[in-house]
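Running log. JK asked me to keep both predictions on one page so they can be read side by side. First protein, sequence followed by its tokens:
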Amino acid sequence: MFTNTRTWIVEWGDCDPAGIVFYPRFFAAFDTSTSRLIEAATGMKKAALISEHGIIGWPMVDTGAKFASPASFGDEVQIETSISRVGRSSFGVEHRLMKDGQVCIEATEVRVWAAPRRDGNPGIESIAIPEDIASKLRGG
């Protein structure tokens, strides 16, 4: 399956009063990492994918995390993001955030390929991931 790694430098605004990353900021970083992974796999920016495929994006429907050690203001960390599974309309994502070669956090996500509802009602619905995109996410 496809993997992408990016560097994230922890900013002051990412931290709580104790000087460590406030946990929701990790999930914001992982959201960006998921988008960067899809961009790297497809060769297209998120805005172009949304426009071309008539979708609203790939919202998260499930998540989990194991926290092993903190990250703090000024830390330069690496986020390794991998596709773990590609289904008809959903896909699994795994993140490993590392500082100085040590794993700080391991997180998982389930996301769906989503579009505005086709029946005219408000809201969104999951739709099939186009096969060319699914193949690229699988690393093919």
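And the second, directly underneath as requested:
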Amino acid sequence: MGFKAQLHEYVQWRDEVAKAIEMYRDWCDRHDLKEVHHSVALLRILDALKNERITLAFTAEFSRDKAELINALFFAEMGFRLLPATTDHTMMCPAELFYDAADLNYLRLLDIETRIEETSLMEFRKNSVNWKQIELDFTSPAQMQKALA
């Protein structure tokens, strides 16, 4: 089974678990079995399931290696490389690629010059001011190839 299929299976499992918890909450409500600490715990679980994001980090000695791996994992069915796989330093800056079927899809780039500062990457992630955001249209390979270049 391919990587994308496994991710899709995981998302389906997560949605089914959330649905089962919702059904259990409804059942408790109908039978007056609602307790505050159980309700709070169930809401936390539901919130975690609904807001969870899978984060994949790629490291390699050369930028080309990361780009080739990402192309192979996510864009192989396109028939051409969406991420540029060159030997120059185009991928030296931290980059985040976001995909959510129900939300905006985009690429965020953090200027490599920010790495001179003592600010951690996690701190930069919390503040979007230093990031350049490029919207991605997953229905248009040509737009994605241009944006990712």
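Observation for JK regarding the second prediction: Residues 63-148 form one domain.
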